[in-house]
Automatic annotation (TrEMBL), chain A:
GO cellular component terms, semicolon-separated: plasma membrane
Chief place of localization: membrane
Domain of life of the source: Archaea
Entries under InterPro entries matching the protein: BP-dependent_transpt_permease (IPR050366), MetI-like (IPR000515), MetI-like_sf (IPR035906), OppC_N (IPR025966)
Signal peptide: none
CDD domains per UniProt: TM_PBP2
Record keyword Transit peptide present: no
Name used for this protein in its record: ABC transporter permease subunit
Natural source organism: Halomarina oriensis
UniProtKB/TrEMBL annotation, chain B:
Organism: Halomarina oriensis
GO cellular component, one term: plasma membrane
Residues passing through the membrane, by range: 12-31, 103-124, 136-159, 190-210, 250-275, 295-321
GO biological process: transmembrane transport
Pfam families: BPD_transp_1 (PF00528), BPD_transp_1_N (PF19300)
Location(s) in or outside the cell: Cell membrane
Domain ABC transmembrane type-1: 97-318
UniProt keyword annotations, A-Z: Cell membrane, Membrane, Transmembrane, Transmembrane helix, Transport
Top-rank taxon, per record: Archaea
Signal peptide: none
Record membrane topology: Multi-pass membrane protein
Protein name: ABC transporter permease subunit
Entry-linked CDD domains: TM_PBP2
Coiled-coil region(s): none
UniProtKB/TrEMBL annotation, chain C:
Name of the featured protein: Nickel import system ATP-binding protein NikD
Subunit organization: The complex is composed of two ATP-binding proteins (NikD and NikE), two transmembrane proteins (NikB and NikC) and a solute-binding protein (NikA).
Highest taxon of source: Archaea
Protein topology in the membrane: Peripheral membrane protein
E.C. no: 7.2.2.11
Signal peptide (from-to): none
GO CC terms in record: plasma membrane
UniProt entry keywords in alphabetical sequence: ATP-binding, Cell membrane, Ion transport, Membrane, Nucleotide-binding, Translocase, Transport
The organism's taxonomic lineage, starting at the top: Archaea, Methanobacteriati, Methanobacteriota, Stenosarchaea group, Halobacteria
ABC transporter domain span: 29-324
Reaction(s) catalysed (UniProt annotation): Ni(2+)(out) + ATP + H2O = Ni(2+)(in) + ADP + phosphate + H(+)
CDD domains xref list: ABC_NikE_OppD_transporters (cd03257)
GO molecular function: ABC-type nickel transporter activity; ATP binding; ATP hydrolysis activity
UniProt source species: Halomarina oriensis
Chief location bin: membrane
Amino acid sequence: MVSPRTVRNLKREWRDNWLAKVGVVLVVAMVLVAVFAPFIAPYNPRSQSLDDNRLPPMGFSKTENQTSSEFVDGEAQVVSEEVTINATWDHPLGTNQLGQDMLSRVIYGARTSLLVGFFGTLFAMLIGVPIGLVAGYSRGRVDDALMRFADVMLAFPSLVLAVALVGLWGRATFRIPDPFVALGLAPGMPGSVVIPGTVIAVVALVTWVWFARVARGEALSVREEEYVKAARSLGASDRFVVWKHVLPNSLTPILVLGTIQIAAIILLESALSFLGFSGTTLSWGFDIAQGRDDLATAWWVATIPGLAIVLTVIGINLVGDWLRDALDPGLGGEGGSGA
Amino acid sequence: MSFGRFLLKRVLQGVLVVWGVITAVFLLRFITPGNPVDFVAPLDASQELRQQIAAELGLDQPLYIQYFEYLFGLLQGDMGYSYLSGQEASVIVFNRLPATVELAVAATIVAVVLSIPLGVISATRRHQPADYGATTFSLLGISTPNFWLGIMLLLVLSVQFDVFPVGRRGIPFVDAFTLLLQGNVSGMQLWLSHIALPAITLGTYFTALITRLTRSGMLDELGKSYVRAARAKGIPETLVRYRHALRNTLIPVITVVGLQLGTLIGGAVITEQVFNWPGLGLEVIGAVNARDWPILQGSLIVIGIGFVLVNIVVDALYAYLDPRVVD
Amino acid sequence: MSERNSVEETADSASATTDGRTDSRSDLLRVRDLSTRFFTEEGQVNAVESVSFDVRDGEILGIVGESGSGKSVTALSLIDLVESPGRVTSGQVWYRNPDLAEEFPDAADGEFVDLRELPTRVRRTLRGPSFSMIFQDPMSSFNPSITVGEQIAEAVEVQRRANANPRSTRSRTQGYGLGRFILDGVVPNRDYTDPESSRRAVELLEQVGIPDPEQRADEYPHQFSGGMLQRAMIAQALAGEPDVLIADEPTTALDVTIQAQILNLLRDLQDERNMSIVMITHDLGVIARMCDRVCVMYAGEVVERGTLADVFDRPVHPYTEGLLGSIPDLDDPAPRLQPIEGNVPSLLDSEMGDRCYFADRCPKAMSECLTHPPEFDAAGSEEHRARCVLADHDYDPSEALPEDFFGGGSPAETGVTSTDQQAEDGATSEVSQDD
């Protein structure tokens, strides 16, 4: 399963490929940010302060026409003057239209993205891998049925299907208390983590086919290996063979596909929340949608969360490339269903 | 097996998939909570009126009758009547379709024209600046959400520098082409200026993906024995690269592109949203929010059929390039 | 050795006796101190180290050695096909060609030109009409998605175009690029090759003994058997009517019965066309059957060279003796074959040291073997040479190295830890016997 050779390849790729290090650093950083968001975020991402709306990020300033009424010679006059508003360290990445701190929102957005990315992939894997293994191993009718069904699934673009399903089924979320806040370690931060349940379910439902395809392919080829034939000829049960031989040998490509799928699902989630099909407003896609209406006056509201997405997805893709090069699962470019 | 039989088999498979698509879309309504009548009837509608509406929608019939009626309706091009827009759903869907097709085709052209040379250059000048440039671009391209890219392009090129118009379709391609035939280029210019940003937005992911695949495929192929043998027999390097290596590189690339077509169409939906492009994608989002079932179902089926058709073309291309498939 | 009758003797060597025959032929290629190195991440690999030998008109020269001894890289170096991270780093390859010598006086010495001094594009034009190569595995040496006939026609077409417009850059690039590739794909009945070349390809297929050549020309490589495909590859190599055909393990991937057919075919073709063949193999049986003269390679060096009789009847180098000892002799079957202990050594520059590379496996290693030996003249014909002190004087047991001198009793370790790509797949001595 994890042979010394695999470990050696991983190490060699790690040593020779500085991009792999960049990827791992990015991913680890994002995970830490997401987990410890209540400690890192300077403000509650939901708290509004309308006076401080549309503050530019550090290094930038903006000019605004401020109008005020003044009494000149006993007569009221409207005076318009140009004011330059500089960025402050209070809000290093600026604020949005509601005066919410962009830095805090980006930090909390990481939670949503990574939660959906991780659990969406996990559930897709849990649905797809068993179905694929069974179909590939048993072949015949089960296999035909699966492949035809997969063809139908693939005919719907995952984003379109996800939009339809989330839109039709509702945007249900559930909340779990944020442990740090519950323990009183991070006062003033949101008390619960919003988990977009429907989005996770839908995202798994529209992407499991990729796992089924890969698992099926692996099962088909492992089935033909001599040692599997030997095990079967010795009277091993199908369940035993699948569990002991087929699954362990399929893990590498499934792992690599899983990594790439996390990136694809993060992109899918951001697209869904950009279109308004998400249960939470603490999402990078949602913030981009907010900023889009305000490009001319506050370009950073749309720009900054997008950069966060790009950095996260680049990180995951680099890790995926590293695993792919080191483990060589022969996936080609099969995997991935980006938005 | 001959090429013709191969194609016939593929078409029959495609018909089967389309049937599956229609069935899935039909069933979607029955696994969705909420009564369709609620979205059509006025809030204060009487029980009687509601039943009348249900009968008109055919909802009082058994499921299989509804199914066959829907199926036969589709065969005659009837997708149902959209009460919410007061029009036949098929009229709306087919009105919107050309805009999406234009966008998707333009993006594909952008992607293919840019990515294959980029991938080849990248592979043949490995570890040189051109290669680093191409690999960086392709990593960024597959990691950037296209709606955000679209917004950034709008921000820089439309809002800041006013190079391109802000969104909306300027003129249908057919009209632009008719004008061109009459010797008037302004229509084409208008079309191009409007489609440029959406096409780049939608095409970037694909350009990046194909560049990556072409690069790694070319590197693979160039390391194979037949390339060395081709060099040994004295044929020019350009011939080795294009006639031998690239041809074999494109075979797996085409497969992946076929598989990823869904991504292209999905990307079109969101690109249309960013640029207010009046295509099917915008229509789907509207129909989902309004629960306009005939339009939603019709759009999904048209998208599914489009995917199946393009995949048949892709498979035919594959069989043309790789003779082993047909055998 | 005299089993090769002198039937193919041509006018200029008609007076030669069997034994002196090789001497009377003139050199076509003189390889001098050729070195090829690979610059890998693990370090510098000396795949070919100061190799010298000659190839004469109309002869078959054998290069024999274990996998990883550098014999294939030597062949690739001759026709400039060494790929990155490898590079020919020094040495000369003198090729007899008066036309080229006249055109490039700087690179010339009499009728000979040093190929390494020629511009790259000129060197490349020599592939086909001067040098051609056939490879071990015919299945992977043909492009799977182009018909066999078309691939051979391509080789013909290149020569046809080159002849129409001799040695200009234009005629070699021939304006083929991405645009042309797409155009050919889109426009039907438009292709790189001329119908004339396709006809010639069918002729060539017929000459190498492929039945129904016309029909087979339109088939794809996967529709051919291994033996038929190897014939097709030979046909392809003949398209440019080369002076030297380099055959890199041409029969290794084939069934034993097919091997003999291919060897016979090569010999017949060589007789007919009076070309020279460089036969690279690990199979001493092939050497004994085909070759006039032999080079034995070990660890990137030629350790012994001479006529077939020199090497087979009067071997000097213990490595050559070891190779011969691992062949069963039907007249005098020994109870056990004598394998060469240990493995092919690492070719990593940093691990090679300055000694005889074979010393660690040599049953007759002496203390003087710890300095790298030069090439000595050896008994036998004039050209018999060996890179071994035993060619100079006899074995002296009192000077012998202690048994565990090279790290315990497991010299094999050096081979196993080798990171060199070629050494890796040659983990054991794989000198085999003839059928």
